[in-house]
Amino acid sequence: MPKEPFLGILQVNTTFHRPPGDVGNLSTWNIPIKIKIVEEASGDAVVKTSKNYSDEFVSHWIKAAKEFVDEGAIALITSCGFLATIHPRLQSEIPIPVGTSALLQIPIAQALIHPKKKLGIITFDADNLGKEHLIAVGVDYDVPIVGVKRGGEFQQILRKGKEYDFKAIETEVLEAVDTLIRNHDIGGIILECTNIPPFKNAIYKKTGLPIWDIITLGNYLYEVSLPKNYN
């Protein structure tokens, strides 16, 4: 029996709640997906060591990606935007389209908005996201980056296992968006963090701006990898 094509999601080993809209919540998707947890990759380490991942760390992701290919995946994404720095390695090892990070959408997003406007990034951790991540996905120019509150509710929930508080996270995300649009002439927003899309509608209501995230990337990769039959 032929394998059903699907989008493979390589997920960091975490235990926090993932509401609808999160990359790891099945109800987020209207396309066939499968999730594979990379057991050796914990959430905080993925962020804090992302500028210099070890070869051993990268090998775990390559192994999991190849398993997905054997299972019938037609495209892959990951559950953390900081994994942008492993993109060149995964891309060279895997024969199907690979989307390690929402940051991959920066060039096309910038090309679509007004030329005098800037694209801005909202991230889980502005202290650890930098030029290394941008260069790894082919972006060799500065892009404004604003993170959620350092040591705030969102970071404590993901890093310290604090109870999930949707409204508290939403407040911190919108505060970051406020900072971004107050300090830059923004024409569109990229959500680095795959746990921020549940708040995308609130961001849109606040700004009216187009928003790209890991969900838009995943849907795009699935569509280009398995074109719809209109007949």
From TrEMBL:
Protein name: Aspartate/glutamate racemase family protein
Native source organism of the sequence: Wickerhamomyces ciferrii (strain ATCC 14091 / BCRC 22168 / CBS 111 / JCM 3599 / NBRC 0793 / NRRL Y-1031 F-60-10)
